[in-house]
Amino acid sequence: MNNPFLAGRTVRVLGERLAPLARESLPGVVFEEGALGPCDLALIDADASPTEALAAIEALARQPEPPAALLIGAHLPTALVKSLMRLARSDVLESPFGAADLALAAAALMAQPAAAGALAAPPPPPQDSRCWAFVGTVGGCGATTLAIEAAAILAQRCKGRRKVCLVDLNLADGAAGAYLGATPNMRLAETTADRIDPAVLGAFSAHVEDDFDLFAAPRDPRAFQRVSPEAVVRMLDVACQAYDWVIVDVPRLRQSWTLDVLAGADEVVLVSELTVPALLSARAMAGEIEADLPEAPPPRIVLNRLNKKMFGPAPSLGEAERALQRKADGGVASDWEAASTSVNLGGPVCHHRPKSKLVKDVEALVDRLVEAPSQRAERPVEVGRPGAVRAA
Q1: 308 pLDDT exceeds 70?
Q2: Which domain holds residue 365?
Q3: Tell me, what CATH number does 297's domain have?
Q4: In which band, very low, low, confident or very high, does the pLDDT at 194 lie, cut at 50, 70 and 90?
């Protein structure tokens, strides 16, 4: 995705080895190479020539309005780092690193106010956003698929008018990136909550299609321990300011930030299969959420992978609702062929099999959620207390 905070900015690269990676990491910017001149951001390769790097930093410091500077290298000399610290906007990126690391560091620097009275990029206007959280009641029940389809359907309907994002909070091993054929860029463990702003959010995003972005984390078995609740809440808060529709795929197992996310959502959708274990889990999970979030609207339960067969061992819809001890809020037909084909091709089912009954059922679910009036009262919140995501 072209980060709107970097688009049209001038980035000067000092060091030939940096140029290819910089072009991959920072689409939409204007690149200059060679001797220092006017620019918004200077990328300096300290490994190429420490002497030239030091001279470049000193030349930047002499400018009336120095640009942001990012010093890149391994085992950086102390003299270089001390010289860099004289600049108001500077940072260090140690090797080895990838394109996402460079994009995140550059976006964070560019988001800082420019020195000597220069104007920083204005933040986007606040949005009247809607946030829906999808949670699976058992593993493999299709919550990620339904979240992807809901986001893609919204993006198709709002094309050119409103923006949609899907946030995969399965931080350790989320599948949304693989399903959509996108590279996960959301590196919450490598930043702090106070650094997350619209520019950093742009560096976290992976572009899926026009007006549809994905926020997903690279695979990391220790991610749930490494990412702070404050970072998760702040990231969603900024996303709700930047996007009109925020669809969140929430992990089934409760984390330290789960209640904050669910309380901040306008709708919580519990996805269940039509099996006894899944239905019992859905009933228990719905009761737990209602007990922990008494002021929030009750969660909705959607039955996924409904089969057209009249006879068989699966419970009927009536039996399912008796097991749930409540009405289901919707059902989605099973279409294994369409779902597996779309996953293998990379993209939502509504792109590859738009006439699938699965797609029609998710469209009907989206219609119901869009039309549902918000029952959530605005109230001040803080991290650690339910509702932190949508704090004013």
Answers
A1: no
A2: 130-390
A3: 3.40.50.300
A4: confident
Q: In terms of domains, do 144 and 95 share one?
A: no
202 and 298 housed in the same domain: yes
List strands edge to edge, sheet with 10-14: 30-33, 10-14, 41-45, 68-73, 90-94
pLDDT at residue 154 is higher than 90: yes
Same domain, 187 and 238: yes
CA distance 245 to 248: 10
Which amino acid is located at 262 in the chain?
L
In this structure, the answer to whether residues 137 and 228 fall within a common structural domain is yes
Beta bridge partners of 215: 167
Verify that 48 and 171 share a domain, yes or no. Answer: no
Domain total in the chain: 2
Reading the block at residue 29, the tokens are 């910017």
Q: Which amino acid is at 23?
A: R
Q: How far is CA 135 from CA 71, 112, 351, in A?
A: 42, 36, 23
Q: Is residue 179 part of a domain?
A: yes
CA dist 334 and 350 (Å) reads: 14
pLDDT by residue (tens digit) across 251-283?
A: 999 999 999 999 999 999 999 999 999 999 999
Distances (CA, A) of 8 to 1, 4, 32, 63, 327: 14, 9, 12, 22, 52
* SS3 sequence of 24-53: HHCCCCEEEECCCCCCCEEEEECCCCHHHH
Looking at residue 108, what is its pLDDT? 79
User: Which residues are CB-contacts of 364 (< 8 A; sequence separation ≥ 6)?
Assistant: 330
